[in-house]
Amino acid sequence: MKIDMEEVSTTKMVFKIEVPSDLVSKEFTDAYDGLRKKVRVPGFRPGKAPLNILEQRYKKDVETDIIRRLVPDYYLKAVKESGVTPVEMPVIENIDLRKGGTLTFTATVEIKPKIERVVYEGIELKKEDIAVTDDDVTAGIEGLRERYAQLEVCEEDHPIEEDDYVQIDYAGFSGGKPVKDLRREGLLLQAGSGDIAPEIAKGLSGALKGEEREIKIDEKGLMFKVKVTEVKRKLLPELNDDFAKDVGECETLTELREKVKERILEDKREEQRANYRNGIIKKLIEWNPVEPPSSLVEQEIKGLLNRTKAFMGKKGDFEPEEEKAFREKYRSHAEEEVKGELLMTAIAGFEGITATDDDVEKEIERMAKKGQQDAVTLRRYLTSIDGGIENLKDKITRDKVVNLIMEKAKWV
Length: 412
Known about the structure:
Elements: E1 2-9, E2 12-19, H1 21-38, H2 51-82, E3 91-97, E4 103-110, E5 124-125, H3 134-147, E6 150-153, E7 165-174, E8 177-190, H4 198-204, E9 212-217, E10 222-235, H5 241-248, H6 253-287, H7 294-312, H8 320-351, H9 357-370, H10 375-384, H11 388-407, E11 410-411
Parallel strand pairs: 5-11
Antiparallel strand pairs: 1-2, 2-4, 3-4, 6-10, 7-8, 7-10, 9-10
Helix pairs in contact: 1-2, 3-6, 5-6, 6-8, 7-8, 8-11
């Protein structure tokens, strides 16, 4: 096999690959020998069809099959021999296959840039003390009360007030005619939460169960007929030892407060560490310029778009202009993430930093405890999803690199 490599840029490589003629000839011979045994050609006994007849009938199929088998095989051999790391599938072009000759083709692929050295010692970090105040704990307890609150149906003569939960049926009209898709039954909303359009919230103020009101949305020329089918109020649980037993696996409210304090402290430590990591990444990029492969940046942007869709509760795709705006917003962040990942991975390689099986088990235990999950179930889930354990190992390795950089940082 002959390989010519051309480095178009630090992140793009073109392979010009030539498969020797003797190997190609053997592929053609094997292919037609196999065909001769399988196919029936009128006028000839099984297995006796002449080569020229087979070529007339099956030349295109044979060539396609040989290309399908040889091109991926020899591309992978070329990549292995070159020592580069592709980050996407190659673009295969200029395929030239001739019976009795060679097979030649080009493969253009994005690669991870070669990083010979990363400067990371002496990064300046500002040390900040962490403290959990009584107000922090009180807010945490109130959050638990909100989570365990229950809804109670109000009295029939209870007028809707701010923060009440209102169940409604509604239908929208424009010019006196029903508007398609502006009809809903049994919708539960909180009156003062912003879930309801201001005009509708104002129009429902003081309404009673069973009452129907017509509410105009002037600037849109719409009118809604809204019927109140239920009014509910939120009841917060009392703060006592029983509440602590229900929500915190604690015997007393005092123990629950301590547990909440520990959780808040851990959250603040994670936030602080994330701030340190962000500062480290920015300084690594400043000290070690590196070109991010466009395909990895695109993967990062797609991930951000998918997370945005999930956050917005959006089912389908963004509108073209909407997606374009998000892409422009996320591009610099995505490029920074890819650059940071490349540099952190390089440091891990230089320093021999890896994630052991023991590291993985400890991290699963930590994640399970924080999320109040069963460690066995979490481990089974991570093992079942594609790349679950490998992604966890990557995270652990990055965390170890951050630890190393923090050990060698200049604290101020």
